[in-house]
Amino acid sequence: MSAEPHYTLYHPRWYRRRVSVWWWLRKWSYAGFVLRELTSVFVAFFALVYLWQVWALAQGPETYAQFLARLQTPLFLALNTVAFLFVLFHTITWLNLTPKAMVVRLRGTRVPDAVIIGLNYAAWLVVSGVVAFVLLRA
Amino acid sequence: MASTIALTVARYRPEREAAPTFQTYDIPFRKDWVVLDGLNHIKDALDGSLSFRWSCRMGVCGSCGMKVNGTPKLTCATFLSDYLPGPVRVEPLDYFPVVRDLVVDLSDFMRKLKQVKPWIIREDEKPLANGEYLQTPEQLDTYKSFSMCINCMLCYSACPIYGLEPSFIGPAAIALAQRYNMDSRDQGAAERLKILSEHDGIWQCTFVGECTKVCPKHVDPAGAIQQYKLTAATHWVKSMLLPWGTR
């Protein structure tokens, strides 16, 4: 920014507006953005639960059974549901944004956004399917 | 059909008041009138003291950017008929200091624009006798959308990051840097990387995406920034893995 002006006849006295703390409530798209940033907290939560699970597994069957019982308490069920919804929101908004960053050109023309989004969703489904297959097989 | 419509216009007269106020004018409603026509009617017939910038009236010069009912718009391309029955609130663009009424000071952007070197940089200029630097339509197509920017500043006004972190280089300047980076005739990408990959460059952007939504010329600054993040990250990985590879 230019230097702070002092009002003289020849130099305007500018008016600067402050950004309100509640700027993100002004528009749904701003609120959606802040929510998307917040999802990182829930991604971290899932990562911690996962680390806890690995730790419990290493401690032996008794600790692991305790871990599983803890997960089935109403508190954890509620927490996991909320976290799951946020992570889902994170994934969907993330995948919808991919064509902005990934510009793929085939034979001189740009691959349409919908195709890139579609391929990302397809990859997501395939990876989820493989993970489900490995887990449910046992 | 309504015969008049109310325009509620932000006024700021620094010699008179310490903060902006609003003044409402009733103007004739015409189907073919845009907000700028309404402002010109006020200036010509109702109140000659109202100040605002405009020039071409056809979405080319980028001078008449203002907030219309809270959204940054080119007032020459914003029809009054879309805001019936009114009132229509007209304010100066957000995040820039207001000089007077609807006029904001853009020197911050001008300084930043110069920083990203928006011109073709050549390591070696070939002699004029050798002719032009040729470019295929495909090569033109890679950057053409970014070259449509008219510096109207709607994207800065829509960007909450620019509001919160005024040092952010901002959407239009980065899109214009990309316009030259992706030009096949340009060799200045490394020089621009230094400025763009700094803290106040692309990494300030957290991808709100509003800049692209308000852009009247479909420049897609948000896309330019995300693509450049990918370029900068790839460059960084290369410089870590192969210290000689990026020289």
Please, could you describe this protein's structure?
The complex is a heterodimer of chains A (138) and B (247). Chain A has 138 residues and is an all-alpha fold. Helix content of chain A is 70%, strand content 3%. In chain A, strands 1-2 form a two-stranded antiparallel sheet. In chain A, α1 packs across α3. The longest helix of chain A has 32 residues, at 28-59. Chain B is 34% helix and 13% strand. In chain B, the strands form two sheets. A five-stranded mixed β-sheet of chain B has the order 2-1-5-3-4. Chain B has a two-stranded antiparallel sheet with strand order 6-7. In chain B, β3 and β4 form a beta hairpin. In chain B, α6 packs across α9 (221-241). The N and C termini of chain B lie far apart (67 Å). The mean pLDDT of chain B is 93. The A-B interface holds A 1-2, 7, 12-17, 19, 23-24, 26-27, 29-30, 33, 37, 97, 100-103, 105, 108, 110 and B 12, 14, 19-20, 70, 94-95, 97-100, 105, 107-108, 111, 138, 141-142, 160, 163-164, 166, 206-210, 212-213, 220, 222-223, 226-227, 229-230.
